[in-house]
């Protein structure tokens, strides 16, 4: 129940971006059943937007799979960051937690780890399952009711997700109370992300920014 409660602040972001994803998927020609299945099995916002776009462009199945694979490589980094908290669990139980891990639940879990220095498996399940069900519901709602909303950005739905992450980041920084390190890491991530984004794809830029900024932050903390 605590995991469910801690997921509540992220639900609005899920609803908005999931609703927008449902609209785009419906526009791409997918049926409501296919959208529900896509949300259930893929469960990744950026991947589903890409999927809809590539379906519209008549891309091959192999091309879609390869693209989504590289876009979602960041999940390896997030899972690795949380894995120390679940070392005592069996591989099957770890798989159940990892398979439902998203950017949003990772942000909430990181905040929990920073404030409590531990993450209970049942709390993580409550967080993950709540977000998962909400995402599926949002996608299906977008597919059903999206015909009356042709421009999601006009309602600010495109900003709901970044706003949610800004809130999670602020909470984590306050709980850590290591402002100099966190600000340095943030600036480093922005510089590397923008620089790599000009040369490579946004997915590679995100991974490069994450790795470099995390390394810089770790070095600073060890040095201090």
From TrEMBL:
Primary subcellular site in the record, as a coarse category: membrane
Keywords in alphabetical order: Cell membrane, Membrane, Transmembrane, Transmembrane helix, Transport
Localisation per UniProt entry: Cell membrane
One Pfam family hit: AzlC
Stretches that traverse the bilayer: 12-37, 49-73, 129-149, 155-175, 187-220
Entry membrane topology: Multi-pass membrane protein
InterPro entries: Brnchd-chn_aa_trnsp_permease
Organism: Cohnella kolymensis
Family in the record: Belongs to the AzlC family.
Protein name: Branched-chain amino acid permease
